[in-house]
């Protein structure tokens, strides 16, 4: 029960309409890239799925449950990694994990926390303040934290923004590995080199889906770039 | 409850890490108490007036008001930190957590009031060491009153934070809230003195929720209770918190403006 469905969603910020009669369906598990240039509606879609924002009309369904009827159990089944830093920089790595576990009501989280920190190469930094971590480690910590409740859905909004290509690739590989373990990963990005051949790709443009298919089906990076009006904003490094 | 405990734990830890904030919170009322208090003692004579059964020193009179200003500043500081969290994006973590938005705001409020109470206790201890004391039982009885006042002012801060879209606007708004609330209240001078000199101001003071918070603390410090103060503080807490919840609904202003 990890399907994400948006049905006929309208959303506007004041007079500015961002999504109009927008529908989207992300089925099952695997890695789905939501790709689009700035202003395509990616972050608004993220905020609607996460429940931070509510659509003006239409439905947002996660695992068959309407966002309005979402219970704590449903929310706990979703992990979110935001574009902005949401770590408490004054707390240590472990304290950030403890704070998050408290928010999610996780009692016996220590063992999983340790395993995840080790898996993402953060165990040595566990006592360090988040403020002292470099950009790559901070992003990893955000991912580790989101994975703490063992969610079936992981949604990441431009998680590698501002990082150098090597670290971006490492993080992308680690998240792809999570998708292969059965997590339904939705990766919001405008960077083509973070997408692998078999990933599902949804191309967004001006609040509408322009194309949908696997990366290979859409013709890879070149094919996708040729389909975009704002192709200069899609980078391939 | 786990989420509330986590939010309180984080707020207390953050407060302990920010030692300068703790010192600043205490310096302000101590300056009033030890410097202004000594200066105004001669200028402002005080009659025997409830809850006092005898003549008191001016410093003793202003202690409840200074407790009030501590929790008022603390409430606004917490609101500022919410605006900061919203501006930086870290508020999103709370917004997507499996807790209702009302519970999240309520937990924030309890955390803020707990920090305010710690500050007031420390202030009262310092005042005690300087010889400004009440009956020991008074401290115990005043604790719920201080906490309730801190909740009311924290809720006011939360409600105001829904109207603020940019961090830099916060200082200006606060000047229109903190100082008028503080000076147009009974924190520094009793109501009867204001009535003698400026009847219009006395009306403003009577309608100021901060006045009722201060008076609630003042009376309970002497083991007394004026119901009107308690009713006004509880009612204002309800109204301010209701406004904050309304403002933080995902369809409305504070979030929609911010997360565009």
From TrEMBL, chain B:
Query: Where found, per UniProt?
Result: Cell inner membrane; Membrane
Which residue ranges does UniProt annotate as crossing the membrane?
A: 21-49, 61-84, 105-131, 137-160, 172-192, 227-248
Tell me where it mainly resides: membrane
Topology with respect to the bilayer? Multi-pass membrane protein
GO molecular function, a single term:
ABC-type transporter activity
The alphabetized UniProt keywords are: Cell membrane, Membrane, Transmembrane, Transmembrane helix, Transport
Record has RNA-binding as a keyword: no
UniProt key word Transmembrane:
yes
Residues of the ABC transmembrane type-2 domain = 20-251
Q: Which GO terms describe its cellular component?
A: ATP-binding cassette (ABC) transporter complex
Q: Which domain of life is it from?
A: Bacteria
The Swiss-Prot or TrEMBL record describes its family as follows: Belongs to the ABC-2 integral membrane protein family.
Q: What is this protein called?
A: Transport permease protein
Question: Which organism's genome codes for this protein?
Answer: Leucothrix pacifica
């Amino acid at each position: 029960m990890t399907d994400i469905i948006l049905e006929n969603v309208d959303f506007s910020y004041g007079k500015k309409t961002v999504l109009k009669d927008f529908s989207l369906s992300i089925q099952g598990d695997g890695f789905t890239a939501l790709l689009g240039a700035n202003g395509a509606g990616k972050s608004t879609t993220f905020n609607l799925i996460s429940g931070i924002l509510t659509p003006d009309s239409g439905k947002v369904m996660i695992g068959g449950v309407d966002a309005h009827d979402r219970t704590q159990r449903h929310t706990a089944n979703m992990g979110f990694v935001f574009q902005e830093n949401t770590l408490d920089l004054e707390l240590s790595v472990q304290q950030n994990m403890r704070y998050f576990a408290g928010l999610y009501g996780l009692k016996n989280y220590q063992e999983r926390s340790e395993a995840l920190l080790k898996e993402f190469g953060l165990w040595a930094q566990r006592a360090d303040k988040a403020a002292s971590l470099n950009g790559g480690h901070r992003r990893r910590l955000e991912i580790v934290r989101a994975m703490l409740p063992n969610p079936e859905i992981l949604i990441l909004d431009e998680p590698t923004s501002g990082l150098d290509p090597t670290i971006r690739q490492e993080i992308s590989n680690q998240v792809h590995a999570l998708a292969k373990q059965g997590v339904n990963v939705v990766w919001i990005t405008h960077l083509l080199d973070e997408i692998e051949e078999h990933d599902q790709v949804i191309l967004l443009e001006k609040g509408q889906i322009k194309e949908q298919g696997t990366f290979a089906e859409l013709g890879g990076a070149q094919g996708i770039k040729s389909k975009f009006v704002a192709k200069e904003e899609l980078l391939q490094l | 409850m786990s989420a509330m405990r986590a939010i309180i734990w984080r707020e207390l830890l953050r407060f302990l890490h920010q030692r300068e904030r703790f010192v600043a919170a205490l310096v302000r009322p101590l300056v009033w108490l030890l410097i202004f208090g000594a200066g105004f003692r001669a200028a402002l004579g005080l009659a025997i007036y409830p809850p006092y059964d005898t003549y008191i020193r001016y410093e003793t009179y202003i202690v409840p008001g200074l407790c009030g200003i501590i929790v008022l500043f603390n409430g606004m500081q917490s609101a500022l930190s919410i605006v900061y969290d919203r501006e930086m994006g870290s508020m999103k973590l709370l917004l997507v957590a499996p807790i209702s938005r009302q519970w999240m705001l309520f937990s924030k409020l309890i955390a803020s009031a707990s920090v305010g109470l710690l500050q007031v206790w420390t202030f009262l201890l310092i005042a005690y060491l300087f010889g400004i004391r009440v009956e020991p039982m008074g401290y115990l009885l005043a604790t719920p009153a201080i906490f309730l006042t801190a909740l009311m002012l924290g809720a006011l801060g939360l409600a105001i934070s829904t109207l603020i879209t940019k961090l830099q606007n916060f200082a200006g708004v606060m000047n229109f809230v903190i100082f008028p609330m503080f000076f147009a209240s009974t924190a520094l001078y009793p109501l009867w003195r204001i009535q003698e000199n400026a009847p219009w101001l006395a009306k403003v003071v009577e309608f100021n929720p901060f006045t009722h918070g201060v008076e609630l603390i003042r009376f309970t410090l002497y083991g007394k209770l004026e119901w009107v103060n308690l009713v006004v503080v509880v009612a204002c807490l309800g109204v301010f918190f209701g406004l904050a919840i309304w403002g933080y609904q995902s369809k409305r202003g504070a979030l929609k403006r911010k997360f565009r």
